[in-house]
Design brief:
- The chain is elongated, with a radius of gyration of 20 Å.
- With about 220 residues, it is of the alpha+beta class.
- It starts with 17 loop residues before the first helix and ends with a helix.
- Helices cover about 55% and strands about 10% of the residues.
- The chain has a domain of about 110 residues.
- The chain contains 9 helices and 4 strands, in the order H-H-H-H-H-H-E-E-E-E-H-H-H.
- Strands 1, 2, 3 and 4 form a 4-stranded antiparallel β-sheet that branches.
Length: about 220
């Protein structure tokens, strides 16, 4: 059975440690801040009025924001999805459209990273359980991806694989995003950011409990 395929498309390695995720958020924030300062200075020199809100939610900055959260996945991407629902009508149509992409797109793990996750959970000989295991997911979202496979006995299965480090980084991601969003003008002041992020935090802790989810499926009548 072949698992690793180097022709993977639309994939991006997931930053799995808390430190690497913090660095990713910091890089995003620094990029947005640098863009805002440069644009503000240019407008000031030209004698044009400066709107920090408009500069922060410019097309280039919203693209940077969405791309970083899409690459991080987990709580970071989930918060972005929630924000797209809450503030979409209060920013420009172009910025709102870009932010809404977080609800419809997501990177998958590269096959090499997927292989490491499966080996960690099932051991180095896990390939022996399958006749075929497609390394390309049939679906990917904010906390995991789904793969089609067939066991040695011919049973067709859908395997749900959680991204590495996602569950352990929920609280730190939420805390760091809370600080970054409060420090910027991205979220309108009338949005209850703390309640929004707390709701997202609780939801993610439930969604990442795959054992609990599996037990619900077993208990469900007719499963």
């Amino acid at each position: 059975m072949k698992l690793i395929d180097d022709n993977e498309t639309n994939s991006y390695p997931i930053p799995s440690s808390r430190f690497s995720r913090l660095i990713n958020l910091g890089s995003m924030t620094a990029g947005i801040a640098g863009s805002v300062l440069a644009s503000a200075a240019t407008q000031f020199v030209k004698g044009q009025p400066v709107s920090i809100q408009d500069l922060i939610t410019s097309q280039s900055n919203m693209l940077r924001f969405v791309n970083h959260l899409s690459q991080m996945r987990g709580a970071a991407m989930k918060v972005g999805q929630l924000l797209s629902l809450e503030i979409g009508e209060f920013i420009s149509p172009q910025a709102s459209e870009i932010l809404s992409r977080l609800r419809n797109q997501g990177y998958s793990m590269p096959p090499a990273q997927l292989n490491k996750v499966l080996i960690k959970n099932w051991g180095p000989g896990f390939q022996g359980m399958f006749e075929d295991f497609n390394p390309y997911p049939v679906a990917s979202a904010s906390i995991g991806q789904v793969h089609k496979c067939r066991t040695r006995k011919g049973k067709l299965l859908a395997i749900k694989v959680q991204y590495p480090g996602i569950r352990d980084s929920i609280d730190s991601d939420i805390k760091n995003l809370m600080f970054l969003l409060k420090s910027s003008a991205l979220v309108p002041p009338f949005v209850d950011l703390e309640s929004l992020l707390e709701a997202g935090r609780r939801q993610l802790h439930r969604e990442t409990d795959y054992l609990r989810e599996g037990q619900f499926l077993i208990d469900f009548p007719g499963y």
